Amino acid sequence: MLPRRSLAPLGVVALVAASVFAGPAGAATADDYPSWDDVTKAKSSASATAAEVARVSDALDDLDATAAALGADAVAASETSAQRASELADAEKHVSALTSRLSEAEDEEQQASQTAGAVAARLARNGDSATLRLAMSEDPGSLLQSLSSLEQLTSVSRRALDTASRARGTVASLRADAEEAERVRQDRAAAAAQAADAAAAASAEADEAVAETTARQKTLYSQLATLKDTSAKVEKDYRQGQEMARVAREQQAAAEAQAAKDEAARQARAAASASGTGSGGSSSAASSTGSSSGSASSGSGSSGGSGSSGGSGSSGASSQDRSPAAAQAYASSRVSARGWGQEQFSCLVKLWNKESGWNYQATNPSSLAYGIPQALPGGKMITAGADWRTNPRTQVDWGLSYIADVYGTPCSAWSHSQATNWY
After folding, report:
1. Angle CA(342)–CA(347)–CA(350) in degrees, nearest 5?
2. What is the CATH T-level fold of the domain 1-230, as seen in this structure?
3. CA-CA to 117 of 20 to 30 Å: which in 14, 133, 322, 352?
4. What DSSP line would sit under 17-76, residue for residue?
5. What is 158-182 written as a DSSP string?
6. Cβ contacts of residue 278 below 8 Å, gap of 6+?
7. CA separation for the pair 68, 388 (Å, rounded)
8. Which among 204, 209, 205, 195 is positioned nearest to 77, based on CA atoms?
9. Chain-centre distance of CA 272, in angstroms?
10. Is the pTM of this model over 0.70?
11. pLDDT tens track of the chain, all 423 residues?
């Protein structure tokens, strides 16, 4: 779906994920979060209530940003580990191929050396005999025949020695290549092991944050509900709706900017064509192509939002079936719950088959768009649940809410994807 770019450093990925939310810098400690006593006291006046609402909202921002950053670091570390493992596999294949070629070359060198030795021994025996015959022969014909035989034997010996020499050179070269390849393999093995350890540590840290974030979110939403005399669900849905509105504005702005670029490129091509400047038209066309590619990145980059049913998707993530088939079955139930028909589910299947194959761990290696809906960055899905990195249901909930708010229906999103190669 996304244009390929160089892999971003982990710190940059974390910063991008954190920037999805406008929370305060730095992770909050337990003492930073509002207590129920604070909430109760704040109910004494409207101004105190408003101040406490702002404090709770800031705490939610900080909590989401921290959890999103940890998840993004885990995704990036996992992708780096996969790349290092792939590089190691390539190195192992190279070592194996060189080892096989070296073994064949050593066999050929041994055979060539044996042949050269046998020819040399034969030359020594026949050469002495031929020399004696030359010295004793009185027959000119016999003399010429002996000279010809000796010359042929010498030529055979020379070729055998040359073949053996080349074989020894080939063996020496392949042995050096194999030793260098093995050194590279060892280096890559160490790098792969280090990356795997880093990925495991990042994943463990992100997993720990899921439980804490989920518990704190529940408390904070309940506190907001108490302060505003609503319910936790209403407050969560409102917060997610606000985030979705921001995303929709970004999406619209990106679409308008791209339309302006496309129109400028069209006018430039028309002007170049009118003036007969073929090279100018070609340049403008290239510019237009480049801007369209950029649009795919920016459009997908602004793809973010909330899943109003994210809470239900978070339950039982550790034991649930995370297969593509299970994700599709869950998505089908959520599509029906939204009042969409089977044709909309068919469009959704096509869309996310194209995006990720319904793999909850699908990662674009260049942009780190993540998950079944390919959220960019993946941390945007924090609004649907803290377990966005590992729970297909949370990803489905987020993706459906994003589609509903930005495109209206899965079929509209699928049409957009077919036209632009992103959604």
Report:
1. 130
2. Helix Hairpins (1.10.287)
3. 133
4. HHTTS-PPSS---GGGSPPHHHHHHHTTSHHHHHHHHHHHHHHHHHHHHHHHHHHHHHHH
5. HHHHHHHHHHHHHHHHHHHHHHHHH
6. 272
7. 9
8. 195
9. 40
10. no
11. 433 333 333 333 333 343 444 443 444 555 567 777 777 777 777 888 888 888 888 888 888 888 888 988 898 898 889 889 999 999 999 999 999 999 999 998 888 888 888 877 876 776 555 555 555 555 555 555 555 666 777 777 788 888 888 888 999 999 999 999 999 999 999 999 999 999 999 988 888 888 888 888 888 888 888 888 888 888 888 888 888 788 778 777 877 887 788 889 999 999 888 886 544 444 433 333 333 333 333 334 433 333 333 333 444 455 789 999 999 999 999 999 999 999 999 999 999 999 999 999 999 877 778 999 999 888 889 888 889 999 999 999 999 999 998 899 999 999 999 988 888
- Return the structure tokens found at 227: 């302060």
Q: Which helix (H) or strand (E) holds 121?
A: helix 46-136
